[in-house]
Design a protein that fits this description.
heterodimer; A: alpha/beta; eight-stranded parallel β-sheet; 51% helix; B: Rossmann fold; Dihydrodipicolinate Reductase, domain 2; six-stranded parallel β-sheet; 11 helices; globular
Amino acid sequence: MDRVLFGDNQFFGINHMSEEKARAQAIRFQRNEPVIEILDAAFEEGISTFMCTTHERVAEICRHWRAQPQKYRDYKFYPCMPYAHKYANAVTEYGIIDTVRRFLPEEGLLNAIVRGGMSLAKKDVEGLATLMIDAEMKMFQGLNTPVIFLQNVVTDLLLGIGFKDGLRIFADHIRSRYNAEPGFITMNLIRLLDALDELEIINPIVCSNVNKVGFRMCGGVAAYEQAIATRRFRPIAMSVFASGAIPAKQALEYVCGQKQIESIVFGASSREHMHQTKSLIEALS
Amino acid sequence: MIRAALVGLGKMGISHQAIITAHPDVELVAVCDAAKYMLDVMAKYIGIRTYSDYRTMIDAEDLDCVFIATPSRFHGEMARYALERNLHVFCEKPLCLDVDEGSMLAEMAAERGLVNQVGYHYRFVGAFREARRLLQLNTIGRVHHVLSEAYGPVVIRPKGSTWRHNKKEGGGCLYDYACHAIDLMHYLIGTPHRVAGTVLNNIFSRDVEDEVYSTFYFADGITGQLAANWSDPSYRKMSMRIMLWGTKGRLNVDRQECQIFLNEPSDGDPDLGAGWTVKNTVEMADPVWFYLRGEEYSTQIDHFIQCIKSGNRETESTFASALLTDRVVQMMLADAHRLDGSKGVVRQSERRTKLVS
């Protein structure tokens, strides 16, 4: 994995610090051109991995990438699925079961309908899950997706209710169908590592909050430090600045000081900021 | 271990299920839902005991408490059944669609010494708790006006087939969104004794209101305004905001930030100078043992469990307090009724005609 990964919160009006900032960014990035401009700027800075949710707008970005295969030959996407609000809003409108029906893929129509229908009838969650993963992955066809993540809302929901096999279903399908490494995003690192150990999923890629102030790090800073230092997994650190609460140098000194952390994901909306952050990471690593 | 059961496996239900199951002091022994499909999936993949009738479940299982996350229409009868069998009850909001029933439930819980809580999770959000603390310290002086707003993209087209779109089931913006905004005002200021100018409009829905506006009159001359609109797609998700004006300054609070403006430096707090001070969720959120969607969802459940363990019946969001919110809803419905003589929901076309004539 690249040392520095580019995140997508700023493009979709997500800012955990402030709703005003979030709105300003949503306005700035409501068209695709500014988004592509920023991604291209990151690419020029040597950041060639985009870790993004499966929001419909990402599908439009993907089209742009597919149209220039030479330029983006070395580019990687790390899809993070599902985009929770799409499903949450649908569940409000249609209920859980009808939402599942609506999001089954259209192509390979007969096959999907038959598989989907049978899976739905048999309460075959595995079949349904693989179909929905395929639906989420459609937008990345033809693009390089070496790591594919399960979003924290789903990872942590499965962890909470105790349906750990759901994590294995995801991992197996990502490996077999996409020949990619499965990754898990979580707010509950310790709990997830325990579950993955139980499932004998060895040396998993796990993305979680890692920052100096313990923001959304369940179990606390010390427990996370210990897990990172001693347990066998491939950590990606996110929310390293704790949504802007920690000054850049301090924040990165803390994260880069933990040598087992493989990669750092962050978002930026200016070239200058990207450049500063990447340079700091390189200097401190 | 506290033995718990959950009724209702919808969006809120499964979120609660994850948090309850992950709680170190609770054993979730059974779940109940009307959809046999969901029950079968749960039984097959988690191995938990499942029921399609809550009465059978409560009678069969040895329980300490029940969590109710069904459509609002069923809250009253389910809570009653549980309380009658001396179980502590956590019930999703609003408590009840009928204030008499709600009143009976609050009394029953009190008489039997049972822990009772309603899911007004905003009371557990760091920013709103900080606002309450500042108000109790008289930081912005005498409060004279409050504005409470809730906006979101729940109903953005005419279709819709779930209970949220059905008045009798407790659907509609008033019960689903505005209740949070009313309860927060209650948490921070108090309950209004009178409401006026209540508007209930459909925008896309046929059967329920999509936006709600009203003016509130509190004790000591304090006024308030409520605005709720769940048909606004410019919001990515539900956005709750409250503004309070006082003689010494004002507060502007949402889930992420508590913004404080003071006319002069604070007497009591050396960190609060004149002008703006902004406190952010990062510094105000208390860490939780398990995180799903927001600290407040875990904190409210942990609070309920700790109250059961300690025997403290005065949870931060009791039936009695939730009942006050339900009473305000009744006042608003009656007020809207008075204004236009209809059933309390004003259709856009009718409204235009009325204005003209």
